[in-house]
């Protein structure tokens, strides 16, 4: 086998291992695009308020929904989809996937898939960001792309809108995937910030400042702009 063929084979192997065990955190691109993602909803008050803000700036986003909440608010799931956003799977009851077994992980994912009426794209966001090799491989077997992030505003903590705006504006780059929450579902923190008003205010300010400069698109659309960057994501805290 010549050197070129070897190189190609090596790159194919590396890529297929990456897509199996690694996790997408952002996209390598020079295009001025980024993806906002919102976890833990839908929420009867905050999700509609969020939809209004996104609509105002013509921003599209990806909503990683919890199955239990989606089952209770099916109308909101449909509303989010109808507005052109993408819906992804964030498990049924938001457990840490490294603390449950394979059978339970499969149940959590499949049940949510039904509640969300997912067809086509299958994106998963690990609850609490927890993942190990076994849980990652289960998502591969279930035919999901695992999507994490490379920008957060730590909106699960008590913070002012300005503090969150600084983290967002200081870190959003072409290809960024941004983690935010339109609800806080079964948090393990001692003092979770259930009130989403500060996040909504921070988002409004950020979009006001950045939407001339960036197009905010769904994760599947972002993936069309460049090569996804895969990171080995092994996290339990
Ligand atoms: Zn979550």
Q: Indicate the proportion of strand residues.
A: 15-25%
Global outline = globular
* Average pLDDT level: 94
Q: Ligands in the structure?
A: zinc ion
In total, the number of domains comes to: 1
Question: Which topology does CATH recognise?
Answer: TIM Barrel
- Structure summary, number of beta strands: 10
- Largest β-sheet summary: 6 strands, parallel
* CATH classification, class level: Alpha Beta
Order of helices and strands: HEEHEHHEHEHEEHEHEHE
Low-confidence stretches: none
- In CATH, the architecture is Alpha-Beta Barrel
Cα distance spanning the termini: 46 Å
Essential attributes:
237 residues, TIM Barrel, two-stranded antiparallel sheet, 10 strands, 41% helix
Would you give an account of this structure?
The chain has nine helices and ten strands. The chain is α/β, with parallel strands linked by helices and 237 residues long. It has a single domain (32-231), classed as TIM Barrel (Alpha-Beta Barrel). The strands form three sheets. Strands 2, 3, 4, 7, 8 and 9 form a six-stranded parallel beta sheet that branches. The chain has a two-stranded antiparallel ribbon with strand order 1-10. Strands 5-6 form a two-stranded parallel ribbon. Helix 2 (46-56) links the parallel strand 2 and strand 3 (61-65). It is globular and about 60 Å long. The N and C termini lie far apart (46 Å). The model has no long low-confidence stretch (mean pLDDT 94). The chain binds zinc ion. Zinc ion binds at residues 39-40, 90, 94, 127, 185.
